[in-house]
TrEMBL record, chain A:
Keywords: Cytoplasm, Initiation factor, Protein biosynthesis. Component of the translation initiation factor 2B (eIF2B) complex which is a heterodecamer of two sets of five different subunits: alpha, beta, gamma, delta and epsilon. Subunits alpha, beta and delta comprise a regulatory subcomplex and subunits epsilon and gamma comprise a catalytic subcomplex. Within the complex, the hexameric regulatory complex resides at the center, with the two heterodimeric catalytic subcomplexes bound on opposite sides. This is Translation initiation factor eIF2B subunit delta. The keyword Lipid metabolism does not apply. Residues 109-122, 137-166, 178-190, 201-212, 264-288, 304-333 have a biased composition (Basic and acidic residues). Belongs to the eIF-2B alpha/beta/delta subunits family. It is found in: Cytoplasm, Cytosol.
Automatic annotation (TrEMBL), chain B:
This is Translation initiation factor eIF2B subunit alpha. One of its GO terms (molecular function) is guanyl-nucleotide exchange factor activity. Belongs to the eIF-2B alpha/beta/delta subunits family. It comes from the Eukaryota. Component of the translation initiation factor 2B (eIF2B) complex which is a heterodecamer of two sets of five different subunits: alpha, beta, gamma, delta and epsilon. Subunits alpha, beta and delta comprise a regulatory subcomplex and subunits epsilon and gamma comprise a catalytic subcomplex. Within the complex, the hexameric regulatory complex resides at the center, with the two heterodimeric catalytic subcomplexes bound on opposite sides. SUPFAM superfamilies: NagB/RpiA/CoA transferase-like (SSF100950). It is found in: Cytoplasm, Cytosol. Keywords: Cytoplasm, Initiation factor, Protein biosynthesis. Pfam families: IF-2B. One of its GO terms (cellular component) is eukaryotic translation initiation factor 2B complex. Gene3D superfamilies: Translation initiation factor eif-2b, domain 2, Translation initiation factor eIF-2B, N-terminal domain.
Length: 688, 303
C-alpha cells in the first residue's frame, strides 16, 4: 500500500466516522422527539402499529443498501449503524449528510469509498457527480476541491494547516445555530493541539536521527501546555493513539477496523450528549491533524530508511526505538486503565472494560436489528427501562421474522441457539435491565411452548404475535392502568415532585393534566444525568406548570410537596426499588418531611433478584460526565493524569422498602413488600 | 325495587340485632334483595344489587365495612353467572353461595376471638379503643378461660361508644376502667397490650377505625407496646390511602353531612387511617397476619 492510498483510506475513514457521529446525534434528537410523539399519540397509536412502521422502513432501507453493499462489504457494521439512522431520516440527517459530502469533496477528490459513503447517505436524492458545480454557498469549497490531489503530498504542512483552519471555518457555517461554548472551546483546543503536532512533525523532518528520542518529552510538553484544559488532554491522547495506528498500518486489516469501530462506539457510550458532541468534534479535528502529522512523520521516517540501506545500524536503531516507545506507551495506558478504579466497585468495572467490548466478535450471524440495538444500547441512544424493553422485543421480532431454519433442526432449538448468541452480544454491550430479562424469559417460555413438529411459518407467526401481545399488555396497557390509578391519587392543588426521567411518569403527569387536574409538578434533576431536563421540556411543552430544581435543593422544597412520584428501573423481590442514582436520596428526603412516596412500576419490571444496597449490582457510567464543562478550573479535569483522583459515576441506587409508601402497578396499588406476591401471581398466570 | 325499601331492611337488621356488624348486615340485605325482588335476567339482578349497595352507603352508617363487605359478596356470588344455563338455576346458585358466604362471615368473628383470646395473658393490662364486637368477644372468651386481666376503655367521642363497651365488660365481671380519649398518652405506660378492632383493613395492612385510633397507635409505637388488631377478613378492602387526607370522604363523614354541603374541614371525621407501621399483628379468621401479608391475601381474593 502506498502512502497516498493509506492516507486516502484514513481520510475516508475519518469522514465516515464524522458522518456517523452526526447521524448518531440526529438519531438522539430524533428518538427524543419520537418518544415525545409516542407518548403524545399513545391513545391513538398502539405499539404494534409503531413497530410495523419501523418494520417497513427497515425493509426499504435494507433493499437500498443492498445496491451499495458490494462496494462496501468491508464495513458491514457501519451500514447497520446507518440503517438505524436512515430509519429516522430528518432534516438534521440531511444536513449532516450535506456537510459530510462537502468535507469529503474537499479532502479526497476521486476517491471511491467516500463517494459510496455519500451515495449511501443521500439515497433519497440524486448524488451529484464530482465534477458537477456545487451550490453557490459552497463555492469556496469547490475551489479547494479542484486542487490536485498531488498537492496533498507535496505540501503536507500547508495543506494540513489549511485543512484544520477550514474545518474550523466550515463547521460554524453549518452548525452555527447549535454551537455551544463548549464546542468552540473544544475546537480551539483541538486546533492548538493540531498545530503542536504539526510543529513536532516539522522538527522531526529536520532531525531524523533524533526522531524517537524526543518523542516522549514532546508529548509531555504538549500535555503540560494544555494541562489546564481537559479536552485538549484528550486530544493529545488521541493523537498519541493515532500515531501508533499510523505506524501499524499493515495490521489495519478490514476486520480489525470493523471491531475497532464497534469498540469505539461502546467507548463513547457513556457520555452525555453535549460532551459527546464537543468531544467528537475535538477528536475529528485532532485525528485529521494527527493524520497529517503521522503522514509527514512516516514520510520523514521513510527517507532515512532509504538512506539507511547504506548504514544499517541507524535503521536498526530507529526500529528499536520504535518498539521501545510503543512498549512504554502501552504500559502507561494499562496503568491509567487500572489505577482509576474505586476499590469497592472493582467487580463492576469488569463488565465495562472498554477493551473487552472491543474484543466482541460481530459475526455475520447476528441480525442487523440486533447489532443496531447493541450499538444503541451501548451508546445509550436507547435508554430507560421501557424503551430498552420495547427495543429489544422489536429487534427480536425482526430476528424471528428473518430467521432461516437450518436443515434438520427443530425450530425452537435452532432459534434458541441463535437467540443465545444474539443475547451474548447485546448483554456485552450493556447488561440487561430487569425489564429486558423478563421479556427474554417470556420469549423463551413461548419458544419452549412451541410443539415439536411446528411449521416454521406458524411458529414465527405465533412468536411475533406473542411479542406484540407482551408489548401491548405489559407495557402499553399497564402504563395506562397505572396512569389512571395514580391520577386518582392526585388531588387538585397538589404539588407533585418527581425525579429524573421516566416515560411512565411523564405519561402519568400528562394524562392527569389532560384529565383536568390542576397540580404543579416539581421536576428534580441533577447535573450529571440530564434526563430530567428532557422530561421537563416535554412536560412544559404539554402545558404543565413545572418547577425545576437540582437535587441539592430538595430539602428546601420538600415541605411544600404533597406527593412524590418516582419511576423505577426494577422492583426487587425484597421490596427494594432499583432506580436511577438519586432516587433513594429523594425518597429519604420525602420521608424526612413525611411526604408519601409513590413508585410507579409495571409488573414486567419486577425482578427476582434481592439487593439491599447498590454495591452488588450497578453500572459504572462515564466518569467524564462528572466534570463540570462550564468550569474552566474544574479540579476533575485532569483526573486521568492524577493517580490520587478517581471520579465515580454510578447509574443506579437502591431505595429500601421503608422509604416507599406504595408501589403503583397495573394490578393494584401495593406496598413494596408485596413484590413476591406479584411475582408468584405472574408465575401462575403467565408462566414467566 | 326502591332505595328506601333496601335502606329499611338494612337499618332494621342493624337495629334489631345489635350484635350484627354493619358489614354483615349489608350482606344480609343483599341476600334478601336477591330473594325478594324477583327479576328475569342476570343483568337486572346485577343492577338491583348495585342499587342496593348504593342505597346502603347513603343511610348514615359508617361506609367502610359496608363497601368492603358488599364488594367481596358481589365477587363471591357473581362468579355463579358464568357457568349455568338458566337464570333460575343461576339465582339458586347465587343464593346458595350467598348463604355459604354469610355463614363463613358469621363464623369468622368466633374464630378471630378464639385466636385472640390466647394473646391475653394473666395479669395483663389491656387498652382498647371505642367499642368493637370482636374485641369484646375475645375478652369475654379470655375471661371465661379464667384469665384475670384489667381493661382500659377509651370513652371514644363523639358518640361515647366506650360507655357501652364498659358496661358489657362489667357485666362479664371484667375489671374495666373508662378513660378519656385525651388520657391515652397518660395511660399508655401502664399498659401491656393494645387491642383494636377495625372497620376496614387497607391493602397495605393499615386499618381504618374509629377516630382516635391513629393517635393511640402512635402513642403505643412510641412506648413500644404491641398493637394487635382483631378483624374479620371480609373487612379487607382494596383501598390504599397514602395519608389521612387521601382517605375517601365517604368514609370519614356520614352521607348526610356530605349531602348537606357543609365545609367538611369544620366537621369531625368519624374514622381515621392508621398506617401499618403502628400495627404489630392482625388477628383474622385467616390466621395471624403481619400487616404486609394483607395485600397477599387480598391478591388471592381479587386477582
Amino acid at each position: 500500500m502506498t502512502m497516498a492510498q493509506e492516507s486516502y483510506q484514513k481520510l475516508s475513514a475519518s469522514t465516515k466516522r464524522r458522518n456517523r457521529r452526526h447521524k448518531l446525534k440526529s438519531i438522539l434528537s430524533q428518538t427524543q422527539n419520537n418518544l415525545a410523539n409516542n407518548s403524545n399519540n399513545i391513545d391513538h397509536k398502539s405499539h404494534p402499529e409503531i413497530t410495523k412502521d419501523s418494520n417497513k422502513n427497515f425493509i426499504v432501507n435494507h433493499n437500498i443498501l443492498g445496491d451499495v453493499q458490494d462496494s462496501l462489504l468491508k464495513n458491514k457494521i457501519e451500514e447497520n449503524i446507518k440503517m438505524s439512522s436512515t430509519d429516522n431520516k430528518s432534516r438534521d440527517d440531511v444536513m449532516a449528510a450535506r456537510q459530510a459530502k462537502k468535507l469529503a469533496k474537499q479532502k479526497g477528490k476521486g476517491k471511491e469509498p467516500v463517494q459510496n459513503e455519500i451515495k449511501e447517505q443521500n439515497i433519497a436524492k440524486p448524488v451529484a457527480p464530482k465534477s458537477e458545480p456545487a451550490p453557490s454557498t459552497e463555492k469556496k469549497v469547490t475551489k479547494e476541491e479542484q486542487k490536485p490531489v498531488k498537492e496533498l503530498n507535496k505540501e503536507p504542512t500547508s495543506k494540513g494547516k489549511d485543512e484544520v483552519d477550514r474545518a474550523v471555518k466550515v463547521d460554524p457555517i453549518i452548525e452555527g445555530a447549535d454551537r455551544s461554548k463548549e464546542d468552540i472551546k473544544a475546537e480551539r483546543a483541538a486546533k492548538k493541539a493540531a498545530k503542536q503536532a504539526k510543529k513536532k512533525g516539522a522538527t522531526e523532518g529536520e532531525r531524523v536521527e533524533e526522531v524517537k528520542v524526543p518523542e516522549k518529552p514532546a508529548v509531555k510538553e504538549v500535555s503540560k501546555q494544555v494541562n489546564e484544559d481537559m479536552t485538549v488532554k484528550d486530544v493529545v491522547e488521541t493523537l498519541r493513539d493515532i500515531a501508533i495506528v499510523a505506524k501499524e498500518m499493515k495490521e489495519v486489516t478490514v476486520k480489525v477496523s470493523a471491531i475497532d469501530l464497534s469498540g469505539k462506539k461502546a467507548e463513547e457510550s457513556n457520555k452525555s450528549k453535549a460532551e459527546l458532541k464537543a468531544e467528537r468534534r475535538a477528536k475529528q479535528e485532532a485525528q485529521r491533524a494527527a493524520k497529517q502529522a503521522a503522514q509527514e512523520k512516516a514520510a520523514a521516517a521513510a527517507k532515512p530508511k532509504v538512506e539507511a540501506k547504506s548504514a544499517e545500524g541507524d535503521a536498526v536503531k530507529v526500529k528499536e526505538d520504535k518498539a521501545q516507545k510503543q512498549k512504554t506507551l502501552e504500559k502507561a495506558k494499562v496503568k491509567t486503565g487500572n489505577g482509576h478504579r474505586v476499590n469497592w466497585f472493582q467487580h463492576l468495572y469488569k463488565e465495562h472494560d472498554k477493551e473487552a467490548l472491543k474484543s466482541i466478535a460481530i459475526n455475520s450471524n447476528l441480525h442487523p436489528a440486533i447489532v443496531k440495538l447493541g450499538v444503541q444500547l451501548a451508546s445509550k441512544v436507547v435508554s430507560g427501562s421501557n424503551a430498552r424493553c420495547v427495543a429489544l422485543l422489536d429487534a427480536l421480532k425482526k430476528m424471528v421474522r428473518d430467521y432461516t431454519l437450518p436443515a434438520k433442526t427443530e425450530f425452537a432449538r435452532g432459534l434458541e441457539s441463535h437467540l443465545a448468541t444474539s443475547l451474548d452480544f447485546l448483554w456485552a454491550m450493556r447488561s440487561p435491565s430487569a425489564s429486558q430479562t423478563n421479556a427474554i424469559k417470556f420469549f423463551r417460555y413461548h419458544l419452549t411452548q412451541l410443539p415439536n413438529n411446528v411449521d416454521e411459518f406458524d411458529a414465527k407467526k405465533t412468536l411475533q404475535e406473542e411479542i406484540d401481545r407482551y408489548i401491548k399488555e405489559q407495557i402499553d396497557m399497564a402504563g395506562e392502568a397505572i396512569s389512571i390509578t395514580v391520577r386518582n391519587k392526585i388531588a387538585d392543588g397538589d404539588n407533585i415532585l418527581t425525579y429524573g426521567c421516566s416515560s411512565l411518569i411523564e405519561r402519568i403527569l400528562r394524562d392527569a393534566w389532560s384529565a383536568g387536574l390542576k397540580f404543579r409538578t416539581v421536576v428534580v434533576g441533577n447535573r450529571v444525568h440530564t434526563g430530567a431536563t428532557d422530561m421537563l421540556r416535554r412536560l412544559v411543552a404539554h402545558g404543565l406548570p413545572c418547577t425545576y430544581i437540582d437535587i441539592t435543593s430538595l430539602s428546601s422544597v420538600m415541605d411544600k410537596v404533597n406527593k412524590v412520584v418516582l419511576g423505577a428501573s426494577a422492583l426487587l423481590v425484597n421490596g427494594s426499588v432499583l432506580g436511577a442514582a438519586g432516587t433513594a436520596q429523594v425518597a429519604l428526603g420525602a420521608q424526612a418531611y413525611n411526604v408519601p412516596v409513590l413508585v410507579a412500576c409495571e409488573t414486567h419490571k419486577f425482578s427476582e433478584r434481592v439487593q439491599t444496597d447498590a454495591f452488588v449490582y450497578n453500572e459504572i457510567g462515564d466518569p467524564d460526565d462528572l466534570i463540570d464543562k462550564s468550569d474552566e478550573n474544574s479540579p476533575l479535569k485532569d483526573w486521568r493524569s492524577n493517580p490520587n483522583l478517581t471520579p465515580l459515576n454510578l447509574t443506579y441506587d437502591v431505595t429500601p422498602p421503608s422509604l416507599v409508601t406504595a408501589v403503583v402497578t397495573e394490578l393494584a396499588i401495593l406496598p413494596c413488600t408485596s413484590a413476591p406476591v406479584v411475582l408468584r401471581f405472574k408465575l401462575s398466570e403467565y408462566g414467566v | 325495587m326502591k332505595k328506601e325499601e333496601v335502606q329499611e331492611i338494612f337499618l332494621k337488621i342493624l337495629k334489631e340485632e345489635e350484635d350484627v356488624s354493619a358489614g354483615v348486615a349489608a350482606i344480609r340485605t343483599l341476600l334478601s334483595v336477591i330473594e325478594n325482588y324477583k327479576v328475569a335476567t342476570v343483568r337486572e339482578l346485577d343492577l338491583n344489587l348495585q342499587l342496593a349497595v348504593d342505597a346502603m352507603k347513603h343511610c348514615d352508617q359508617p361506609v367502610t365495612a359496608i363497601s368492603s363487605g358488599c364488594e367481596l359478596f358481589m365477587r363471591f356470588i357473581t362468579f355463579a353467572k358464568l357457568d349455568v344455563k338458566s337464570f333460575e338455576e343461576c339465582e339458586q346458585i347465587m343464593l346458595q353461595r350467598g348463604h355459604i358466604f354469610l355463614n363463613t362471615l358469621l363464623e369468622a368473628r368466633g374464630k378471630v376471638a378464639n385466636i385472640a383470646a390466647h394473646a391475653i395473658n394473666d395479669g395483663y393490662r389491656i387498652l382498647t379503643h371505642s367499642r368493637s364486637r370482636v374485641v369484646l368477644q375475645a375478652m369475654l372468651q379470655a375471661a371465661k378461660a379464667n384469665k384475670r386481666f384489667k381493661v382500659f376503655v377509651t370513652m371514644s367521642g363523639p358518640d361515647n361508644s366506650g360507655l357501652l363497651m364498659q358496661k358489657q365488660l362489667e357485666e362479664a365481671g371484667i375489671d374495666v376502667t373508662l378513660i378519656l380519649d385525651a388520657a391515652v398518652g397518660y395511660i399508655m405506660e401502664q399498659v401491656d397490650l393494645v387491642l383494636l378492632g377495625a372497620e376496614g383493613v387497607t391493602e397495605n395492612g393499615g386499618i381504618i377505625n374509629k377516630i382516635g385510633t391513629y393517635s393511640l397507635g402512635m402513642a403505643a409505637h412510641e412506648l413500644k407496646k404491641p398493637v394487635f388488631v382483631l378483624t374479620e377478613s371480609f373487612k379487607f378492602s382494596r383501598i390504599y390511602p397514602l395519608n389521612e387526607m387521601d382517605l375517601p370522604k365517604e368514609f370519614k363523614y356520614l352521607s348526610s353531612v356530605i349531602k348537606s354541603g357543609k365545609d367538611l374541614s369544620k366537621e369531625h371525621p368519624l374514622v381515621d387511617y392508621t398506617p401499618p407501621v403502628y400495627i404489630t399483628l392482625l388477628f383474622t379468621d385467616l390466621g395471624i397476619l403481619s400487616p404486609s401479608a394483607v395485600s397477599d391475601e387480598l391478591m388471592k381474593l381479587y386477582l
